[in-house]
Q: What sequence folds into this?
């Protein structure tokens, strides 16, 4: 199998093309092209996260506000909800909270995967093995995403509900992406994400924060979505047809007048990215959760800062003017705007992060007509929600929680128990797992 993997990799590198979907061949751009200027991943320095003019990498700070913005925000409880980083420290240091990925080695075997939704999955094979990190850990009952990047061919492989077995690996769905191409999934196809989009380009990484600049949109979830999708999304997972609900692919931007002066430099890196690149709705889950990689170096102080950003400070933008083709992620670039200057970020000695090449980056809402670019897709089945792992709160939050119990009349005994439980979690004891943010995946 190892020989087969190497042969496949060499063949793809020589031909400069790869198969995306069924019978669809996408040619890679030639070496040295400016279209390769997207943000690379540690361990795959020659591989962009899609071309520089891809919609994921396009500044949307000057785009008009979508006419559905107020309704969509109301449906997502924005007046009473703050952002929530879907990543960060956990009670298990070998299994950090977030989305893991791996940059595969040249010897990684490729395997066939049996899919539940085979008619909307790329057949592969995939560089998937017993050591491939699974979202939530090997025993997870959640979405179980697996993300793999081949640095030699700049190919991104993503699986949903993935389980490896030497006797035959399985997954709910799978998608293969040429990171040097703007090609989208066939219309109506899911991916490893409900919107039919790639996951990896929308994840924030701590090394990006340390660089002082994030230059791409960020993946986010909403609890209830419309039964439609808008470009660049390719698939819906809606609960019902209701234009007051956001469709898959909706993009949200932090308002330009948001005062971030009281936030740390690290938090400002993410907030500026949200102003210039925004959040793209890619899956069902808890409202206003946004994605990042599983990395033990995420500081709890940064996570707590981001949890204080009000969702009411966002607005939906109308980005259909960027679309070159409905089947391409290439975006017309808006009138030039001064890019956000990199923030000077100080990296504490204990948070140095430099993933090596070919290593796994884990230690372990009146109804209004829908937008003109909305695509309606029929409903199908759903899957049950899973379980998510929540990070323990900071000491400051623990004291605030205790004060709240006194105000509510719960009394001193309960306050003491709450403090003891929280402090125990901070020192490595087991932290109680909360109800899931996980999606309901609706299939056409």
A:
């Amino acid at each position: 199998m190892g020989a087969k993997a190497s042969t496949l990799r060499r063949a793809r590198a020589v031909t400069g093309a790869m198969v995306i979907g069924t019978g669809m061949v996408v040619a890679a751009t030639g070496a040295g092209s400016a279209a390769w200027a997207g943000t690379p991943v540690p361990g795959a320095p020659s591989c962009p996260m899609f071309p520089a003019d891809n919609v994921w990498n396009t500044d949307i700070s000057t785009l008009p506000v979508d006419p559905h913005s107020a309704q969509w925000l109301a449906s997502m409880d924005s007046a009473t909800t703050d952002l929530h980083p879907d990543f960060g420290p956990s009670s298990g240091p070998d299994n950090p909270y977030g989305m893991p990925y791996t940059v595969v080695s040249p010897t990684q075997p490729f395997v066939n995967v049996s899919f539940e939704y085979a008619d909307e999955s790329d057949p592969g094979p995939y560089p998937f093995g017993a050591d491939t990190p699974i979202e939530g850990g090997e025993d997870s009952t959640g979405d179980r995403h697996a993300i793999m990047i081949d640095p030699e061919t700049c190919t991104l492989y993503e699986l949903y509900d993935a389980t490896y077995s030497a006797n035959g690996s399985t997954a709910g769905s799978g998608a293969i992406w040429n990171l040097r191409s703007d090609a989208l999934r066939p219309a109506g196809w899911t991916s490893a994400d409900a919107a039919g989009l790639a996951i990896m380009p929308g994840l924030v990484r701590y090394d990006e924060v340390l660089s002082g600049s994030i230059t791409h949109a960020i993946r986010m979830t909403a609890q209830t979505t419309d039964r439609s999708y808008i470009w660049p999304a390719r698939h819906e997972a809606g609960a019902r047809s209701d234009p007051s609900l956001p469709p898959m692919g909706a993009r949200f931007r932090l308002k330009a007048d948001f005062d971030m002066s009281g936030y740390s430099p690290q938090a400002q890196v993410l907030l500026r990215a949200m102003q210039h690149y925004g959040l793209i709705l890619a899956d069902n889950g808890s409202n206003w959760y946004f994605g990042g990689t599983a990395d033990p170096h995420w500081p709890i102080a940064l996570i707590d800062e981001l949890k204080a950003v009000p969702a009411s400070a966002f607005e939906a933008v109308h980005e259909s003017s960027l679309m070159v083709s409905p089947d391409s992620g290439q975006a017309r670039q808006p009138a030039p705007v001064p890019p956000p200057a990199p923030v000077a970020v100080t990296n504490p000695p204990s948070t140095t992060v430099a993933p090596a090449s070919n290593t796994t980056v884990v230690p372990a809402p009146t109804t209004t007509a829908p937008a003109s670019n909305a695509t309606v897709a029929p409903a199908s089945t759903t899957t049950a929600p899973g379980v998510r792992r929540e990070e323990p709160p900071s000491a400051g939050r623990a004291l605030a929680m205790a004060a709240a119990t006194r105000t509510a009349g719960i009394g001193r005994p309960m306050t003491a128990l709450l403090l003891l439980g929280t402090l125990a979690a901070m020192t490595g004891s087991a932290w109680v797992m909360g109800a899931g943010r996980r999606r309901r995946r609706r299939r056409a």
Observations:
- The chain has seven helices and 20 strands.
